[in-house]
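Practice set, problem 2.
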Amino acid sequence: MIDPFQKLPAEIILQILESCWDFTSLDGLLQISSKANEVFDTYYPKITEAVLASCSMTSGFNGHKFRLVVAIQAAAIGPRTLRKCLEDKHWEPMPPVMESIFWSLECSTPIRQAIKAAAKVHRLACICYDSFIENIKKTKPARPNVSENEMHDWLCFNTPVRLTMPFPPEAIHPPSFVEQFWLHRALWAFELYSYSYRAATTRWAWSPKKIGRYTGAFLIFPNEMNWHEDEHLTITQYPVDMNDFGNKVDRSWGRSLWFAKHPGSAMGTFRSLRSDSLVNSDSPLYQCDLRVFRGLGISFWDDWRLYKMGLQSKMGFAAQPTPKYEKPITDVLYTWYSLVKDEDLVDKNAFPFRRRNPWYIR
């Protein structure tokens, strides 16, 4: 294959590499051009800093994780420094060892590995969102059209679903910048964990007990969440375009990276609704397998999409469009619970059903 950069001077190639919008683009150019690789080996600190600054998906917290991956790969930090960097997640100011990490390397190998990791995270995020959107299109939650007593029975899985309909088109718009950033942050967390785990089992020589404690602290989920392991399936969906600030949803809301600093509220909303409505803790609703929510990407959707999906009664941020009418809490609960089918229950008969007065559901 002909090298597209073969006849270009190094100065021009340097400008091209520095102007890459994300690490997926940079990784692609390095794969197809030996001349680009030569330039990168000479100017890798400068190129990496430029791309890191221009890529919105590796800004803030995600950029910190990129630097930590480089530092771990280069054996430039140990577990104590890693812990300090993770505890001070805002990096204000940035730790000196992290600020100079690219320039202190003797070769480009650790950065190349981090670039491949960043490209992998970006491509996986594209595939995840493509899958999430497709699942939303195919899902038909139930809409409340029954009496309060009947609705109470449905919330306790005592009667079948009725009157299902798809989510409205407004809930199926492309992911906003904040939604993209949330998913990238989650994927970067697992990427950083894999590098930390590898270092702990090799260079740091941690004991199995210490590794177990670290894994438990990293992969902790609230008790209300029953994440069951999925079978590994072949991903056939094509990646979607992840245009950061080009999304009209972000432009109309005037949102920026500031919103992405806060975690998504979806599962917190689910737990709050369940608690506020005094749902019996013995109910199967507390023991259901929540893979159905994970498959819809609910943890990464913002408040506006959750509202349009019928999973939230009102908005959380003033900067977002205010809904005309606040959805009744029973309607929202009905929609949440209608997504969980019988096959999603761990053991439908393992939890006794105790009848309660209808007014418990507010």
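Problem 2, part (b): a different protein.
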Amino acid sequence: MYLSEKPRPIDLYKEEGPSMARDMIIEVPTNGDLPRHLHHQQQQQPQPLQQQQQQMMLGESSGDDPEIKAPKKRAETWVQDETRSLIGLRGEMDGRFNTSKSNKHLWEQISAKMRDKGFDRSPTMCTDKWRNLLKEFKKAKHQDRGSGSAKMSYYKEIEEILRERTKSAYKTPTPPSPPKLDSFMHFSDKGFEDTGITFGPLEVGDCQPYGGRVITVKYGDYTRRIGIDGTTEAIRDAIKSAFRLRTKRAFWLEDEDHVVRSLDREMPLRNYTLHLDEGLAVKVCLYDESDHIPVHTEEKTFYTEDDYREYLVRRSFTSLREIDGYRNIDNMDDLQTNTIYRGVS
């Protein structure tokens, strides 16, 4: 590299005119196709400070200077103080959240209050952080029941919000406001969303709250809300009607803690799973009446004693007997699953 004049110190705070420009000669290796020497003359004039600042604000989109980058966004990492502030604000506004409506305006209020406390967090960032906290709470609760706080920093704070919401479900409201429903925690397969935990009263439409005591029952892919203000038989009929159970099969409800609850109006307001009695499956070998030769075998499932009696009457049997046995089976309770029987006339 050859310079046309001696190098001089550069003052970065002093604007230099065109007279300060220098010629530069660069020697480039050749492969036979390129000229042996490349003469490049460049005149560069520094820009005012204000114009440089404007270029920095433009970021990388111009592509002029890879060293000038746009200011980075607010870091997604939350410090403890702002996380606790978010949980506190969300807990204070808990009763105003309604999963059947848009909660956008509430998150905007939370974001504004966070800003007043010195934490610049948008409504979307607050919503995402809250949902992540709920996911962590669900994971800690399920992995280590009763001691989830050991694996989550804010476990107790979120648990307190749930506990307060649970208590309010049992408080008698002041007339004319009817009782409101708390459906408690619901963990969906799609993840632990904010709509997955109902902290506020569930409502239908604009201002039509549920009245009375209501539980949530799930069977397969279907979920129904069942009122339990009536008698046990009324609750049972309501469940059968809701899931279109046209059978005498026995069923029961099991809560999220795997506790089977009796059907009555005092049962806890929780999410339940509906279980149907699988019945008692047996095989009955049918014979030709004249030759006493087995014709075919049919499979039967009995759910109640009445089902068993009706089958005997329809087949003109007095009882069933094991193929290789001698004891007559008069009651359904004496039948053995997947055993082959024959009819006794």
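Answer key, part (b): The domain at 280-344 is CATH 3.10.20 (Ubiquitin-like (UB roll)). Residues 12-23, 30-73, 169-209 have pLDDT under 50 and may be disordered.
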